[in-house]
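hi!! sorry for the late reply, been swamped w classes. u asked for the two structures so here they r. pasted raw, havent cleaned anything up. first the sequence of the first protein and right below it the tokens
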Amino acid sequence: MFVKIIASIGPSSGNIETICNMVKEGVRGFRINFAHGDQSEWKKYVEAVREVEAKLGKPIALIGDLEGPSLRLGKISKPIVLQKGEHIKIIYGNEVSDSNEKNVPMPIPKFFEYIDVGDILIMDDGRTRLRIVDKGADSVEAIALTDSVITSRKAIAIQGKELDLPALSDRDINSIKFAIENDFDYIGLSYVRTAEDIDLLRDILRRAGREDIGIISKIETKSAIRNLSSILEKSDIILVARGDLGMNFGLEEIHYHQRYIVEKALENRKPVIVATQLLESMTEKPVPTRAEVVDVSVAVEMGVDALMLTGETAVGKFPVEAVSWLNRIVVFVERHIMPKIIDRVSNKAREHLETIQLKFAKGVLELAEDLSAKLFVFSIHGNTARRIAALKPKIPVYVASQNIKVLRKLSILWGLSPFHINANSYEEGLQNMLSKAMDLKLISYGDLVVLTYGLKEPRQKVEILRIMS
């Protein structure tokens, strides 16, 4: 598969059996949402993922998703059911014990400074909409514009407004520390507004000696759209966070912004993920809707690196089935539609190459493509493999490394199939890679194979083989 699958872990899927089955159905990365749960819960998820990784022998990326500078409700003892037209009160505090009074807590004081009568509050990916009708010093009253269910820790957007909150909260700092200590591969930076937000996280990782942890910038605010070029430059991966995009823009605008973000990522050769409500109906039902199938198909055709399931696998009733359906859709589109349109995606990603490293990656890749060969890359640091993935290969690309951390990060990138080998040199890496590929039945007799490793001056090796015996 060119397009990879990432699944969110939560109460529905945080056990070894379910995680194992999801990996067998195609998951190559797992997301843990640091906005929910606590470190003891997250630790269990991490241990389960790594146990499955060792059991199945497949490198799996772990992504820790920061809460970010968001407005979130405090703790509510039980869900509050609101009918359209009913009133609700938002009061300052961390929690309320009696939700029968239809009071909900807001622990962020600035909320009450920024909010005005007439403002529209949006929650739950746009399903909940409230209008402010009265305002006090530390409370506001709102009327429900939709039938709604309000639960703990839900993010809120104020339509048309962005609050000037710190890019990283104290909770985020503790979550980053947890990600570092537990060897996460990527950290998702929520509500990115400027490139400086990425610099702040990068500096924390650098001071901790963990510059190897990648940063996924989530594009979900108007500021992020305005500053997309500089954010792309500083990020390792871009994520189209359609849930909060739909809370900050009109729903009719989401497809436009998704296409714009993906196109800019292609032009800048940055990996891009699309997330939220891909198969939303499968939270409750075992089969997706026709519209969801088309939505996923369109995303695959755009040339995204990965698709991320959120609520479908974190809290949904059918996490494994959701992964299975996503895999079925991706495989069908790649087999029957992508061959007709992949040139557009690849050509856009291969324009204006400036560095010798990118030109080398393009040369090796196109050599293998022109020969209809399988491309094998031995990689110590993963750089050449990342560049090849960024050029949107049209053929299978297999990457071998002695470094499992490198393989985990590569596992969610377009078209790469990583596997582990032991090697102490580039030459040994090439030989062991070929031998392991035969053992894994990645190549068979008669196949044409191109072997290489990262650009190493003054001598570079590119080997073309016909597997004969």
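now the second protein. again sequence first, tokens right under
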Amino acid sequence: MGFVRKDDKNGRGWTTRARAAPEPHGRPPHRQPHRHNPHRKGPRRRARTSGVVLGLALAGIVSGACAQPPEDGWPPAPGVRDDRASASVTDSPASVTDHPASAPGSSAPASDAPASGPGRSALSGGDAEPPARGDGVAPLAGTALALAESAERIRKEAAAPGKGTAGGRGTPKGRGTRAAPGDPEDPADRERRRAAAEKWGLAEPPLLPPPPPRTKPELHTPPGFRRGSDMTGLPHVIARVPTDDPVVFLTIDDGDHKDPRLLRMLDELDVPVSAFLSHYLIRDGYDYFRTLRAQGSRVQNHTLDHPYLTSLSYAGQREQICGQQRHLEREIGERPRLLRPPYGAYDRDTLRAATACGIDVVPLWAAEAFPGRMEFRDGKRLRPGDIVLTHFRGPRDWDGTMPDVVRRVLRTATGQGLAVALLEDYV
């Protein structure tokens, strides 16, 4: 007796039945056919017939592929490129149907991938079948070879570096920037951005930043940010970047609230951000930030556990900073150069520990953004080079969503003639 899986009408349950002992060599038992009926085929005869048919089919395919030379250049010889067999992988942005103000947690819609038309192959991107090459099974061999080559190309393209993909560790994609100040924007791209702005509740698209500077601005720690008279060898502490370019920099701290609409909004509007992350808030959500980085944003250090660093010893501060460096390098694929100390609290030991962990710059902030307002360190407006702070938070923390915060920043910056640029391009 033995236990045998047997689904009942509800798809559940185990049952028992007598299990016959196997025949020698593991062959399962079976009934022999009635020998008085010559037209009835038993299992052995059926298996033998199937093997003969399969063998003939395989022989035909091999002989057709080997004996008949390709006609009209199809399929292409190994190493020869043929557009009819070319394959392409298109990372088309997902079609977002929910309104930015919709409730958090709404399901992400499917992507708007173009449907394959008549005579098109969804796998190869080319003809569904190669041109006819005569009778027999030779066309089948050509099709099999073409599909195999297409699959191999897709595999190589997917594995190639620089293919930033959702959830992967690819190189960040390029952002929409002008080739030179004053150059006209591509009409198709301008229309795309106009439609995205309307979708996300903006009266006009965000301004495009100029190209990144060939030489990054020389940084200096302002007197109020210095810790000791000699700052030689320590990271620069700044709240704004010394530049005349009409740009500001959006930075987002912590990593607690992971709104998928924020990723779509930033991607569709071509807005880069710098995310300063604490490990205890994102330990189970690194995929979200790998996607953010693949879209063109960057990820930086905000310590392991978000403590007041000044309350810790030098060794404790070093572990908080270096420990998060190790996590981000392992999970994101890049060792950060920037550290934002939690609460903006730091002392000389913080800067010494940051230096030991490979940190070059400690960016604080000149303005802070909320869903309904902005607060400024000096004055009542943004200035070129200002670093803007906000947090990964949602309705449970404040009266609004992450898209509401980004919308507030973009309206303010655009109204003052400023674009949002990537901080890492300047520091």
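hope this helps!! also noticed smth abt the second:
The two ends are 74 Å apart (CA to CA).
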